[in-house]
Amino acid sequence: MILIHCPYCDEKRPEIEFANAGQAHIARPLDPSGQSDADWEAYLFIRANPRGRHHERWRHIHGCGRFFNAVRDTVTDKFETTYKAGEPRR
Amino acid sequence: MSGFRLKTGGRIDRSQPVMFSFDGKSYQGFAGDTLASALLANGVMLFGRSFKYHRPRGLVAAGSEEPNALISVNRGPGRFTPNLRATGIEIHNGLNAFSQNRWPSLAMDFGAINDRLGMFFPAGFYNKTFMWPRSFWDKVYEPAIRKMAGLGDAPTTEDPDVYASTYAHCDLLIIGAGPAGIDAALGSMDSNKRIILIDEQDELGGGALADPALWPWLERSIKALTNAPNVTILTRTTAFGYYHDNFIGAVQRLTDHLPEIEDRPREKLWRIRAGEVVLAQGAIERPIVFDGNDTPGVMLSSAAKVYAHRYGVAVGKAPALMASHDSGWHDIFALAKAGIRICAIIDVRESVDSALMHEADRLGITVYLNHGVVGVHGRHGVSSVDICDYADQRVRRVDADALLMAGGWTPSVHLWSHSKGSLKWRDDLGAYVPDQPNENVHCVGGCSGDWDYGTGAVIDMLPTPKDQSRIKAFVDFQNDVTAKDITLAVREGFRSIEHIKRYTTNGMATDQGKTSNLNGLQIASSALNKPVPDIGLTSFRPPYTPQTFGALAGHAKGALFQPTRTTNIDSWAQAHGAVFELVAQWRRARYFPKPNEDMHAAVNRECVAVRSSLGIFDASTLGKIEVVGPDAAEFLNRMYTNPWKALEPGRCRYGLLLREDGFITDDGVSARLAPDRFHLTTTTGGAARVLNMMEDYLQTEWPDLDVWLTSTTEQYAVIALQGPNARKVLEPLVQGIDLSPEAFPHMAIREGTICGINTRLFRVSFTGELGFEINVPTAYGRAVWEQLMAQGAQYDITPYGTEAMHVLRAEKGFIIVGQDTDGTVTPFDAGLDWAVGKKKPDFVGKRSMARPDIIAPGRKQLVGLLTDDPNLVLEEGAQIVADPNQPIPMTMIGHVTSSYWSETLGRSIAMALVAGGHDRTGDTLHIPMPGKTHTAKVTGTVFYDPEGARLHV
Amino acid sequence: MTRFSAFSLFAKALSGHQNWPEQWPDAAPKPGYDAIIVGGGGHGLGAAYYLAKKYGITNVAVLEKGWIGGGNTGRNTTIIRSNYLYDESAHLYDHAVKLWDGLSQELNYNIMYSKRGVMMLAHNVHDVQSLQRHINANRLNGVDNEWLTPEQAKAYCPPLNISSDARHPVLGAALQRRGGTARHDSVAWGYARAAAALGVDIIQNCAVTGIRRDANGAVEGVETTRGYIASKRVGVSAAGNTSVIMHMAGLDFPLESYPLQALVSEPIKPTFPCVVMSNTVHAYMSQSDKGELVIGAGTDQYVSYSQRGALHIVEHTLAAICEIFPIYRRMRMLRTWGGIVDVTPDRSPILGKTPVKGLYVNCGWGTGGFKATPGAGDLLAYTMAKDEPHYINAPFNLDRFRNGRLIDEAAAAAVAH
């Protein structure tokens, strides 16, 4: 069970307090109806799924309830950093 | 010496005899004995039969690495445990132990025929045969193979035991309490660190327990640690797995060593998060591979020392040593000092340290250097041993009655490897040792390769003049893997050690290769003519030793497996004979049968009551979310398919929620209480999902919106009062709300009190009748319910359950998300076009509804179905075809989603998703069922009161 | 190829098993092939075998970065069934089940396909509706699947707890009698041996590091840790690592890779006669021929290539097993392990062509790929040989994520209301 640092609570807490929310920094298009089918597919379904450095979202669902972003290595499962939603990609 | 029990010595308590039984025969041991030491003391050499060849097997080890002596223990009904190691079973009065994998008895086992036929069962034999005739596999071969395989018998009844679990946190976790682990604990004891020291044995000390010279130190150390307030000592506790971020799983055995379990927990799961971990797990001695090395009486020399000095038991009256490592010499000297006559020392090396030679000489022990064992005589025990002089290949016989193996040491790097620490190969040790850590952890003592056992030669197996193909030199004792199985695997092209392991099953037995992996690697290395590091290393995986399902999960049994959520009114339903069903995590009253009523009769009565007078229903499980803030209406407008901004305070609206992929995920009626406040409802199962989804959009897509979401599902009990007499019952109980149809129309909400309790009163209907949903603070739910029951008695108020609710809503064509829709249905498919805001530029899921396949013709659409036979109730999930006479596979055009008997209509009704269904009204479709094909006509989905006249009264 | 039989085993035994040949040669890469399969699991080896056997393309290499069968093929719980709801899925998996039947004889390698029956439990009214929908659809698709009452289910699987006061009582079950298990390693080895006998090169310890494309964008070969290998036809069957390979061709895929754990108990005498699955309680189990109870756990929630799962997942799985089979609480967990499963948005596989000419893909099998092994291999081979999908795998294309024609079995099972 990995330990996750919540940037809002500023504490490392066990994974069972958190819900993973998929790849980070995929912004919902401001004008969905103006998107081509291919663009919309990319937004909905296409994922980086990298072997290595990965940007992902977590929600401290059984804590403060906030969504935040993280950089984690998918081979070692170790976190590089976590940061608040809305902050620039690291 | 009485039998094999030495006159003195050992840590057993000779003043406390213990009576136990093995295979029905009674034996006596002493407190402090294991089943292994006690049986050995009684001269028992034969402990079990091997997995494949059913060869007689005795003890190899004295600890948890024991591969052979697997025992079943029966502690009464439901307390049968197979496959325990005799070396880990502490005896107690009344212990009832059995050998396994033999029939009819341990001494005479018919399965041993496999041993005679062993030449036909090499590694992988099952891949090469049992293919003809084809039909024999299922009926003949496989059942026979299955019957031969397996070790102990499975339990047949549920255990009555209870199990405990805990989370623990510490600064320093030390795993293994031998001298290295104890030193580590002593060294940190005076700091402020919270320390946990765990060991799998019943007392601390590890290897020191077999070294009387260390006992005074051990006693002082244990006393110091026990008195230290910051040190927690856990004995009989196995650290079985090392997980991410210094998270260690351990199981503590609490009562297995006690004569009576009573009602104490049997085992306890410890989940330990440690700042720093010290692994002090020691090292395991390696057996030596030679013909007959599995004969009972052939064992590890370190084990013989443990039996002599810890338990006061001689493993034989004249043991010999077969060594490739100095450590065996020290062990044999220790045996000699305990008064055991030593038959001989045989060492494969041409020369050894002169100090060893002098000590052997001083003790009068015959030494054979440059010799190796090439044969063992005796079937159920060693009677003599053939040794070969490698200088001239001459074979001589020595009269040993036990043979000790000292093949060097294998550091226990299991947990280190679980933690993903790297390993490096050391040629001098012939073993892998820890290299770079992946967590805050380090190894001390034997498991780091740091020991004072001396040196040795690294060998794959003993040279022998015999024909290699005719001998049985075992590598994995339990799985019956021989050296020639491994060379066969290599010959057949299996080169990776993982392939060799899987083909031969070497290291896959219940000891997980603790004594066999390194020998297997060495043999493969020789056969492939490649250095060991080039052929890889099999992964170490949790658990370190097998752990019971009960220990790992027993704390979550029965009611604790998953809590059942119940409403405040549930107790009333229970008291009034409700039959319940499980919906998501809730239990809900399904119907309220009167005496002699079946479900059908009860539901019919409940439905008729609602339509003709009055029904009452517990709707508390519906999800509820309070949406508050200046942008609340804008937020809902973006989330739901329909428009929300124009909804007036005091009014309700049906909300339809899609996923971003355009498919329906939830629905519910929601109310605007004030310009900046909404009371949302969701489906029972969808509450948490919908809240999470809304939070996601609010926090990460639209953080500019000033809105707050709060789950209020458990804040309100909800009572649905439905039927033409609903208003009449409410009128005397409600204050502050004008209930007249003009002042309080359908789809409105008012706040006031009922029975003096604050209420949010919805005028809504999921039945098609005049209806109210009364929201009161949860704690008042049952009280208000009972008041309504009393007030409604004059109208024969009838409690109804989810089944009647389903029928009533289906008569009106109201969908249930998850039943009439699955995750592939759009609003248009469901006939809910009216709930989609055509003018809205965007809402969640809108773009996806414009994708090519979603706008293509022929999608499955929700329709009503009326069977030609009005008495026939279709099966929910029945498939629909247009042409019943087509061959299989048929083209299916849809399926029945909901189907009921409608007592109100006097006939069956159904809803179905049918391809192009909206254009098929009036068509006859076919529903092929086993034995008969039914026919039905496509209709609209509203079967009752299509104008909605009954709602607006 | 030495023919395997009881007779050859007997004859070889008399000579001390000294002259068994290699089951497949350890091939070194040639400069080029007519077709390359990336990934030496059951699916990839199967594809190579069928390319050579059925479609006449024998100059084929299988490139495996480790040892064959070492990925999900050797890490799964070996369940075989085809009682899927949608026509597309039922046809796909039943194609595989038909190939499983007789595969031991076809490969002359006993892969131990055991038709012991797969039983799926219903624990609530919604489950009952869902399973009956499956049974009805399966019947009209010619796929066997039948409804059992709780008593019938217990008769078929005596360890089952059908007490009505269980937290999740058993209300019935769907049984596919043709479902069962097979020996996973043997499947990889059997295909490898049979493919090698037809001329296929099985190349281990050969990781693909790049995909080379010509001026028109079409595939012309792969870079590997053992040098460049030319081929105009490359089929990728790399399970959890598919995204990584596809990036080499400049393609982003609708995939995410998750850790999935499984575990076995110590071996015991026969106690559990079939395969039981419960989606509601999240447990599935069978007993191997060796006697181990084989138990599948759930996935961890985050993307990972670590092949390492968390303890709480195992705890939950065992709690679920003990809830349905309380007699096993004294059984002991012997070994746990993790695999990497590649999951698509609709949890159905992608099997067909890619936007890159000459590049084909077989991925996205999630937690259920083993059962499809022969079918997936055959269909990938067909698609590569003909440069167009077979009608069975045509629906499992990449386009569905764009046009919305998803094949979502899990969504069809829906959620409780």
Structure characterization notes:
The complex is a heterotrimer of chains A (90), B (953) and C (417). In chain A, 9% of the residues lie in helices and 37% in strands. Chain A is mainly beta and 90 residues long. Chain A has one domain: Folate-binding superfamily (Folate-binding fold), CATH 3.30.2270.10. In chain A, a hairpin with a 7-residue loop joins strand 4 and strand 5 (67-73). Chain A is globular, with a radius of gyration of 14 Å. In chain A, 33% of the residues are buried. The mean pLDDT of chain A is 97. In chain B, the strands form twelve sheets. In chain B, strands 8, 9, 10, 11, 12, 13 and 26 form a seven-stranded mixed β-sheet that branches. Chain B is α+β, with helices and mostly antiparallel strands. Among the domains of chain B are: 4-129, Roll (Ubiquitin-like (UB roll)), CATH 3.10.20.440; 163-284, FAD/NAD(P)-binding domain (3-Layer(bba) Sandwich); 600-809, 2-Layer Sandwich (Gyrase A, domain 2), CATH 3.30.1360.120; 815-939, Gyrase A, domain 2, CATH 3.30.1360.120. The mean pLDDT of chain B is 95. Chain B has 22 helices and 49 strands. In chain C, strands 5-6-4-14-15-16-13-17 form an eight-stranded mixed β-sheet. In chain C, strands 8-2-1-12-19-18 form a six-stranded mixed β-sheet, with helices on both faces. Chain C starts with 5 loop residues before the first helix and ends with a helix. Chain C has twelve helices and 19 strands. Chain C folds into two domains: 9-76 and 184-254 and 346-412, FAD/NAD(P)-binding domain, CATH 3.50.50; 118-177 and 256-343, D-Amino Acid Oxidase, Chain A, domain 2. The mean pLDDT of chain C is 95. In chain C, helix 3 crosses helix 10 (373-386). Classes of the chains: A mainly beta (90), B alpha+beta (953), C alpha/beta (417). Chains in contact: A-B, A-C, B-C. At the B-C interface, strand 6, helix 3, helix 4, helix 11 and helix 12 of B face helix 1, helix 5, helix 7, helix 9 and strand 17 of C.
